Amino acid sequence: MTHWFHRNPLKATAPVAFNYYGVAAGPPASKICSDLRSSRARLLELFTDLSCNPEMMKNAADSYFSLLQGFINSLDESTQESKLRYIQNFKWTDTLQGQVPSAQQDAVFELISMGFNVALWYTKYASRLAGKENITEDEAKEVHRSLKIAAGIFKHLKESHIPKLITPVEKGRDLEARLLEAYVVQCQAEAQEVTIARAIELKHAPGLIAALAYETANFYQKADHALSSLEPAYSAKWRKYLHLKMCFYTAYAYCYHGQTLLASDKCGEAIRSLQEAEKFYAKAEVLCKEYGETKGPGPTVRPSGHLFFRKLGNLVTNTLEKCQRENGFIYFQKIPTEAPQLELKANYGLVEPVPFEFPPTSAQWTPETLASFDLTKRPKDDSLLQGI
């Protein structure tokens, strides 16, 4: 399934030495700076380490974030911020706008940007795991959970931390509400795809599968809508993917809804539902081709080459032919001119993001440690970008 999920590139960042000569005035401060430097470097390395698993990622992320919290929060749990919050300038690129970096002299910006990359890592891990041959039930569960974790991180950043930034987020940047909403909803939709595949495998009721597919199509439409006002030069490819997935799962909904109608002896309506499934599947095929021809961030995936995609085409054709045969021999019902309304609501299988919180401030931060930082001097900015 690696060629089934569209993935934007990871963010890149400038290296941060945390060398505050004259500012880090004592051994405790020097130790904190050294640990920040090494834990940040370790986390950046893991983003591209194919052997990294969720446990390794969580441990590395918690290690860095707990140390970084001392640059953000006061140690007495008051609403005051740390005196070190604005000591360091951080630079990060965006997933859609290439190597043009954003910079803010704010540790909250670093917390959000690194957290964003952690969420992206979970989506890429899920995609990589789903692409294995003969994926097991446990691996499918891990794909499902990884996507829900990613959704939870994106949601937490959007709701709890981005509002704390002093510098407004530029339009079209990763930390803007529209983009974060698209990432959250896409993760939910992709996790529901795992649920649908499982429901089909276990031959659950067609009504349940139709409802899940309809909800998933709506998720993709919602994500696409969030991106609709962005600059097409960098959002067009991503939007094509979201649109084709919306059409694909709408076709699934109409296909399984048709099966439900047939089981209720509504053969004429079933045929009309299957005809609508055929129409949306054809749209998805066209969009797959257009997606492949559209330039933009991220490697081009090939959904139309995926077995899950091709199976639906065969299922729609075979089910429609079955309905037409049944109508010719048994029902003799008139086929409606209007497609049935898909007012389907899934009662099971809907995906909610896994709630996320950053770890508390590291125990290494004590009043003595904080006091050993003297802010009469400022560090020099290191402006060289470190690619990820």
TrEMBL record:
Name of one Pfam family that matches: BRO1
PROSITE patterns: BRO1
BRO1 domain segment(s): 90-388
Family as reported in the entry's similarity comment: Belongs to the BROX family.
Entry protein name: BRO1 domain-containing protein BROX
Organism: Felis catus (Cat)
Gene that specifies this protein: BROX
